[in-house]
């Protein structure tokens, strides 16, 4: 690569003036912004209903290293290892402070300090550890517990349950006490200190994890086990480009912060609390959407992770399965059958949006959730997620909701969805949002398809409503109006908030001619709010890439760089730095523009389709670890050719299924079998959609 420095390491001599843009350290359970005295734990919320928010947990590791003499500072976020480092260099001593949320042991956070003497001297050298920790929280009433094996201990419960009669989660903290100073004695050339914080929901879990941390420190395995886990994670996914250093670095940052929000691929013991727009490091009272889970998780963040990590993808689906009872309650309160997933979700699945109108009207969330399940099945063939994993309850329950929610219109003999808010939240109480109706139609069709696969009875109304649900379309202008009554050209003054109708082509996959796809893009691009959420332009970019206009797509994608805040590649929701911070939704949209735009990947029932388009300044795209039907592949895309390497398959107990993947070139019909370990290179046919297929799918082709 052309980098003079490692693109996986974000370095600086000065911290950002806006401390919101300090790097978050998270591991799917614990999240913290470095130096902040507040952290959060997944699934721990305080407040009822619309007042529900991530509970603030005090962080004992909120410590800065300082010296009496001024020194030279250097800061780095190493995304290879997930370690943030502050190095303070003086003539007499070099001080290195390292911070990380443990990637393998999710209940642990760690601070390490290394002092190295720089000159021969018989004088002791001391540095100050300046902390801002106080054992208090506005959300949790903490009490001191007895010390445990030298560790300080506080514990408490959140003050208010998510809903009447709900539980108030407990939080236990055990940590290595941090002294005000560290001293390198006269006879020492260097000294190393380790400080561990353990956060858990029970005393037993906290003590067991603290015991584990002491053993790891004693054997020198604390940090190596963390770095090994990150290495294993990166081996399963790499997205790099040649030709644009800034784009390559941005993609690395997106993957790192998104992966930090998901659980360990080795951890199956704890339940996953979902991914909120600002991640675990944010989401306190009134901040960054309160840490709630939106469609952002299922539509914006999930696809880029599911392409590489089936286990992490399944954890998202299991989160939704765990909220089924709450979704059932939401539907009943609205007077409908089935399941109504909340616009804003916490733990129970009951609606926790502070403003009722969103929970009442932004019902496209139901289809967004089922789309994630559908893509998972097509990517993995994991039918167990739908049987034993109870995924079919989600799919069937959503279908029942749509059937009870629609209204029959005798004039056009179509079913309508009335009084909704589309993804474009500048409008509400509209009829027949084209996005909402389309995603509802597809989720009904998937329910029928799944019922057939599992040999379950499917109510005839599912197919009937799917067939007769109105999808707004303007025959004269050959484009999709955003909703009934939307007139192209009339709304040039009143803007569209974010990607909405342009998402019909991707990710929904509504079939349309190139002319209609172009008309939709041209109709909505000039009226989309330039200061709207960061993920929007990625969807426009994908649309233009579908039409083969890579340079136009690249121009739109470059708008996203305004949302990337230096020096740690932390995203803001809006380009002026306002809105949610560590905006994972924007990162997810940006990542999809490359993973599903440049490559043309489309997850379909019978194949993984691809149709690559690279802009002029990108000479090569490398995507390693794509996981399709249990096979991992590395893809190398250049202007005129594609190279695919099927990785050697790990033998698992009881596994007898042979690899039967093959590439089908649509224009010529050529079939190229893939053999583990052997690169397959073939010329790129401009504008041609190719397919990666298997002949042993669990459903008939």
From TrEMBL:
The alphabetized UniProt keywords are: Glycosidase, Hydrolase
Q: What InterPro entries would the database entry show?
A: 6-hairpin_glycosidase_sf, 6hp_glycosidase-like_sf, Glyco_hydro_65_M
Q: Does the keyword Iron apply?
A: no
Q: Which Pfam families match?
A: Glyco_hydro_65m
Q: Which GO terms describe its biological process?
A: carbohydrate metabolic process
The record's Gene Ontology cellular component field reads: cytosol
SUPFAM superfamilies from the xrefs? Six-hairpin glycosidases
Q: Where is the Glycoside hydrolase family 65 central catalytic domain?
A: 282-488
Keyword Hydrolase listed? The answer is yes
Show the catalytic activity: (5R)-5-O-[alpha-D-glucosyl-(1->2)-beta-D-galactosyl]-5-hydroxy-L-lysyl-[collagen] + H2O = (5R)-5-O-(beta-D-galactosyl)-5-hydroxy-L-lysyl-[collagen] + D-glucose
Q: What is its EC number?
A: 3.2.1.107
Q: Which top EC class applies here? A: hydrolase
GO terms of molecular function: protein-glucosylgalactosylhydroxylysine glucosidase activity
* PANTHER family the UniProt entry points to: GLYCOSYL HYDROLASE-RELATED, PROTEIN-GLUCOSYLGALACTOSYLHYDROXYLYSINE GLUCOSIDASE
Q: Which family does it belong to?
A: Belongs to the glycosyl hydrolase 65 family.
Q: What function does the entry list?
A: Catalyzes the hydrolysis of glucose from the disaccharide unit linked to hydroxylysine residues of collagen and collagen-like proteins.
This protein's name:
Protein-glucosylgalactosylhydroxylysine glucosidase
Gene source species = Eleginops maclovinus
Phylogenetic lineage: Eukaryota, Metazoa, Chordata, Craniata, Vertebrata
């Amino acid at each position: 690569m052309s980098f003079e420095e490692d693109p996986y390491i974000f370095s600086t001599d000065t911290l950002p003036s806006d401390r919101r843009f300090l790097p978050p350290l998270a591991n799917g359970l614990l999240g913290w912004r470095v130096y902040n005295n507040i952290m959060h734990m997944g699934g721990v919320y305080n407040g009822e209903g619309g007042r529900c928010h991530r509970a603030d947990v005090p962080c004992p590791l909120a410590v800065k290293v300082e010296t009496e003499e001024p020194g030279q500072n250097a800061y780095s976020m190493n995304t290879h290892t997930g370690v943030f480092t502050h190095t303070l260099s003086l003539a007499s001593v070099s001080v290195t402070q390292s911070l990380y949320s443990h990637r393998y042991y999710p209940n642990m956070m760690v601070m390490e300090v290394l002092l190295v003497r720089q000159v021969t001297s018989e004088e002791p050298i001391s540095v100050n550890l300046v902390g801002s920790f106080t054992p208090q929280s506005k959300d949790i009433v903490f009490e001191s517990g007895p010390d445990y094996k030298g560790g300080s201990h506080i514990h408490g419960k959140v003050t208010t349950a998510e809903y009447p009669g709900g539980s108030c989660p407990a939080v236990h903290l055990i940590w290595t006490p941090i002294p005000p100073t560290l001293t390198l004695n006269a006879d020492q050339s260097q000294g190393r200190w380790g400080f561990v914080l353990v956060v858990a929901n029970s005393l037993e879990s906290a003590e067991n994890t603290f015991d584990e941390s002491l053993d790891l420190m004693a054997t020198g395995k604390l940090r190596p086990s963390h770095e090994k886990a990150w290495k294993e994670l990166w081996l399963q996914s790499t997205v790099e480009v040649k030709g644009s250093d800034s784009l390559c670095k941005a993609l690395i940052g997106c993957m790192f912060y998104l992966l930090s929000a998901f659980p360990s691929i080795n951890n199956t013991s704890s339940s996953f609390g979902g991914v909120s727009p600002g991640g675990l490091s944010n989401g306190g009272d009134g901040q960054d959407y309160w840490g709630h889970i939106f469609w952002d998780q299922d539509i914006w963040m999930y696809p880029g992770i599911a392409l590489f990590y089936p286990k992490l993808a399944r954890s998202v689906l299991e989160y939704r399965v765990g909220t089924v009872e709450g979704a059932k309650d939401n539907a009943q309160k609205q007077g409908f059958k089935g399941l109504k997933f909340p616009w804003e979700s916490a733990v129970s699945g009951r609606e926790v949006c502070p403003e009722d109108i969103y929970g009442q009207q932004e019902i496209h969330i139901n289809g967004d959730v089922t789309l994630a399940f559908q893509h998972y099945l097509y990517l993995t063939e994991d039918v167990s997620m739908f049987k034993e994993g109870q995924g079919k309850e989600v799919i069937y329950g959503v279908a029942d909701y749509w059937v009870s929610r629609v209204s029959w219109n005798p004039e056009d003999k179509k079913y309508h969805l009335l009084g909704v808010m589309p993804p474009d939240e500048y409008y509400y109480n509209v009829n027949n949002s084209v996005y909402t109706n389309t995603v509802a139609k597809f989720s009904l069709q998937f329910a029928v398809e799944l019922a057939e696969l599992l040999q379950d009875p499917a109510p005839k109304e599912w197919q009937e409503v799917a067939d007769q649900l109105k999808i707004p379309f303007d025959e004269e202008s050959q484009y999709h109006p955003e909703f009934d009554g939307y007139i192209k050209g009339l709304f040039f003054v009143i803007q569209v908030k974010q990607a909405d109708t342009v998402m019909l082509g991707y990710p929904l996959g509504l079939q349309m001619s190139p002319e209609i796809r172009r008309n939709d893009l041209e109709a909505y691009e000039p009226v989309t709010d330039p200061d709207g959420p960061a993920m929007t332009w990625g969807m426009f970019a994908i649309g233009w890439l579908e039409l083969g206009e890579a340079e136009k797509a690249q121009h739109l994608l470059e708008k996203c760089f305004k949302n990337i805040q230096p020096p740690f590649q932390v995203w803001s929701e809006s380009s002026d730095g306002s809105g949610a911070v560590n905006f994972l939704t924007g990162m997810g949209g940006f990542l999809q523009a490359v993973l599903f735009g440049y490559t043309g990947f489309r997850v379909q029932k019978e194949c993984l389709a691809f149709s690559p388009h690279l802009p002029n300044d990108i000479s090569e795209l490398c995507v390693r670890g794509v996981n399709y039907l249990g096979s991992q592949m590395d893809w190398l895309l250049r202007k005129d050719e594609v190279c695919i390497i099927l990785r050697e398959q790990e033998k698992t107990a009881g596994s007898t299924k042979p690899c039967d993947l093959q590439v089908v070139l649509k224009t010529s019909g050529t079939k190229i079998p893939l053999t583990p370990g052997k690169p397959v290179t073939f010329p790129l046919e401009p504008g041609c959609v190719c397919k990666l297929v298997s002949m042993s799918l669990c459903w008939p082709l």
